[in-house]
Design the sequence.
């Protein structure tokens, strides 16, 4: 078993009789699934009224009887996410607290022992998320950030700040099966997200590649000399990037470096991104 120490995260606690109902109206995921699968973490999106991404979060059921739900995201989203989720918490019997400085998050790869945490394929392979006190030392075989990124990219998993950014449309990242429920009731942005699914039209989509050359993030994908997309994450020989809709279904692309140098047939589409 190897451990990836994510350190301090944006960590919010939502508790009270209305916690599940309230959060279900704020995120794309069906929060009620936490009640039937309490040892599994769930990915979800927080969107605005236009269906655009504001945050990508993970949800955990900490206490069933209250209930208490823990909401996790990158630490940089701490203020934004707290303000966004607190904005509509008016007449609901629920309390939202910022506990970001109290806990650290670690992810164990090669473990399926749910007694220690929550099952979640954070890097695209089976693993367990575990919450520890913020000041607790993490021991054992530790995975570096570079090693974790290599696993994530090889598995085709999108990440916040690379493939997932504020203002994008979540379906573009291929996370419908892992972070979006089309069967639940209304939530902020639901109408737009559902319309995208019904129409089946996207202006771009995340794509998984193998590369024949070492390339930097930001390298331009080309097809017959036309700019087709951009690489967003690279861990040779794998990469992730967005393709424009005109190039959906194409299999092989040239790549252009920032200095203008072009490598022919350097990127090959291998699969749609994996989901958690």
Sequence:
């Amino acid at each position: 078993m190897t451990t990836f120490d994510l350190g301090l995260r944006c960590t919010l606690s939502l508790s009270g009789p209305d916690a599940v109902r309230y959060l279900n109206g704020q995120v794309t995921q069906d929060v009620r699934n936490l009640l039937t699968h309490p040892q599994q973490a769930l990915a979800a999106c927080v969107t605005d009224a236009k269906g655009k991404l504001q945050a990508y979060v993970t949800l955990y059921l900490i206490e069933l009887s209250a209930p208490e739900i823990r909401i996790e995201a990158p630490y940089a989203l701490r203020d934004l996410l707290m303000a966004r989720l607190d904005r509509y918490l008016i007449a609901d019997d629920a309390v939202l607290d910022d506990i970001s400085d109290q806990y650290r998050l670690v992810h164990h790869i090669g473990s399926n022992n749910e007694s220690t945490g929550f099952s979640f394929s954070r890097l695209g392979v089976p693993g367990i998320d575990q919450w520890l006190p913020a000041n607790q030392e993490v021991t054992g075989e530790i995975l570096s950030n570079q090693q974790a990124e290599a696993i994530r990219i090889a598995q085709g998993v999108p990440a916040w700040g690379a493939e997932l950014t504020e203002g994008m449309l979540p379906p573009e990242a291929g996370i419908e099966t892992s972070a979006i429920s089309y069967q639940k009731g209304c939530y902020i942005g639901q109408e737009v997200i559902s319309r995208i699914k019904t129409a089946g039209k996207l202006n771009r989509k995340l794509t998984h590649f193998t590369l024949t050359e070492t390339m930097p993030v930001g390298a331009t994908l080309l097809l017959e000399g036309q700019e087709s997309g951009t690489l967003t994450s690279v861990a040779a020989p794998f990469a992730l990037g967005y393709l424009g809709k005109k190039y959906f279904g194409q299999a092989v692309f040239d790549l252009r470096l920032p200095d203008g140098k072009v490598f022919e047939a350097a990127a090959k589409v291998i699969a749609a991104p994996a989901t958690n």
Remarks:
- The chain has a mean pLDDT of 95.
- Helices lie at 19-24, 33-36, 78-87, 145-155, 176-179, 190-199.
- The chain has two domains: 2-145+179-191, 204-271.
